[in-house]
Amino acid sequence: MKEFGPEDALQLEKPTKSFLCPLEDGQGIDFEQFVISNEESKVIFKGQLEIDLRPEFEGDDKYRGIKYTLGEEVLLRNTLIQTKLIFSNNRNEPLQNFRMVEKHFLDEVELACYDFTYPFVLPNSTNCWESLYETPKLSEDEIERIVANPLCVSSDTFYFEGNKLVIHQKVRYTYVRNDKKE
Amino acid sequence: MGLLSILKKVKEKEREVRLLILGLDNAGKTTILRKFCGEPIDKIEPTLGFNIKTLEHKSYKLNVWDVGGQRTIRAYWRNYFESTDGLIFVVDSSDRARLELCRKELMDLLGQEKLAGASLLIFANKQDIAGALTVEGIEKVLGLKENKIFEKRHWAIKACSAFTGEGLVDGMDWMTDDIASRIFMLS
Questions:
Q1: Domain A6-10+24-180 maps to which CATH number in 2.30.30.40, 3.90.110.10, 1.10.287.110, 2.70.50.40?
Q2: Which of A112, A150, A175, B127 is the most exposed place for a label (fewest CB within 10 A)?
Q3: Most B CBs within 10 Å: which of A101, A128, A155, as the mutation test of the B interface?
Q4: Mutate which: A30, A40, A117, A125, vs B, most B CBs within 10 A
């Protein structure tokens, strides 16, 4: 079988059913922190991730799914956000052409696609990547649907070393309306 | 569809520039970047890898790569030269003992083919420290006026203090204007 490469990730049309590489392949690459800030550099999300126990995941994969809870008002209305990711390469070897392809979906429709390559990651290094994004522009109907149906927005993140898939993360997002009574 | 098309438009519209910040360890590379962005600078640790930051300045989108300056990391600098529009070389003006090493590292960078087209901004940092060498002093030690290597290069040297922020905007303005005049002249 042909291996799943960056081009396949870019062409992915809906969320994958399962993880496409073994957990061990990403050994030594550790994600330390993920922060989202708004335009005024105010932190609006800081790595509060939860394990997303999904019945369709088996064995160790049960613990590979992630859930994020975010504020609806910031992320879905075509605003500029800043993301900050800190990750370590704890291997004694550098990572060459380390590439992230991330796809966001609303149910099975693509919302966004991010593609970024780090040409070189030093061995035994800690690295910080901060980026600016415009969030997708959604219709009021779509926003209502997302808020009413937690977890219908999901993402598949693929990390490649060259063309080889080494990390696959699956995240589901809940968007909370701030004025909602708890 | 969706964000991808928006991003493409942003890219065309917002004119992207890639900057690389290098210099010896403890020169203040990360502090300059943080201070320029208006972020706190009290908890900055030695960079043991890279910091990549996208920011907007004068309607340009700057992709800034700040790579650690420790001796072991310097050997890997060359992996980050590709597609660099501007090189910012940071000098600790108070570290007189290592100015000669600074000069050697800078000369080595300027001899690199992949950086041949890059504009060069030298930040004479830490001007707030008593006893720091002046811009003129740094210019002399680095041989900026005499050396033929600078004749064809777009370059500037600016005094700054990453601690107070003085001089940073001035330097970054020069860098963006210089790159813009080379790259975006026709757009």
A1: 2.70.50.40
A2: A150
A3: A128
A4: A125
